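1st attempt posting a full record on here, be nice pls
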Amino acid sequence: MFIDPAVSLTIAKVQAATQAKVTDLVAVAYGGPSMLVGSCWPIMVFAFMIAVWRVSTNPNPRAILLLIATVVNLVDIANLTYGKTVAPSALAMTPHLVLLVICGQVKLGLLIAASGWRFSQVCAVARHRQMISWGITGLIATWTTANTAVGIYDVSRTGQASRVFWGMLAMFPAAYLIPAIFTFTLTLSRVEQGVKEYTSSAHASSAQKFRHLRIANNILITITFICCTAVLIVTQTFDSLQNRFVVPSVLFSGTVWLCAESCFEVLTVWQKLKVVVDTGETTPVGSRMQRSPTGKGTQAKLTGSQSAMP
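the predicted structure (as tokens):
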């Protein structure tokens, strides 16, 4: 059958234009979300290095919890990365989504539990420290289990997490922000003022240490608030099946939050070294202050937990 060359040329042009439009649509739909997932890798590798270093130099419950959370988050990133490299029709969708739910919830639970151990260190009384650390750990473990069960039920039944599941995520920032404000922010502010009042200018670094820890905690509070607010807005506004940015955005926000919490360990060690250099102290000072019997003009005696941070 004879086909007019002009018609063939027109058909070829239409096909080329259609392919270009399809390519643009695919690039827009998958390019941005894939970049978000890819940006999580260097952030989490950095956090993993900090976590390994912290466990090897100062093993404690908080350091171990952060290391496990980092490993779980790496599995989460790897799982979502794999999902981006396989055609949806060839992907075992239910196991893929179930793993996303489990890793995401376990990571947040471990992060909050590790934060609870940090918050407890500002208390001088051992019983109070145990109440804060174990109380937050127990509360968030129960909530993590419940939310994970809801998420698994949702993705197994409908292929996506419900708004109830996403809404239950609000418990995680609440369990972080409230203790952070009432322990580090308020308590350290009072301790800082007391140290300034009862220490001489020669030992001003003691007050500076508490000030830096308080500021670092406030920065973490800000990062947490921004990340969690963004997650709640995205998950309650957009459908995770229709909008491919939802899950990568949640993963990216959690990754930034976890990395920021891990970076607090670096500041802690830097502060201890700075105190040694400035004052010659070799024993880490605690988080509570006692009035020196010699009165004003001498260095305050600080007692309490083993250090300002575990």
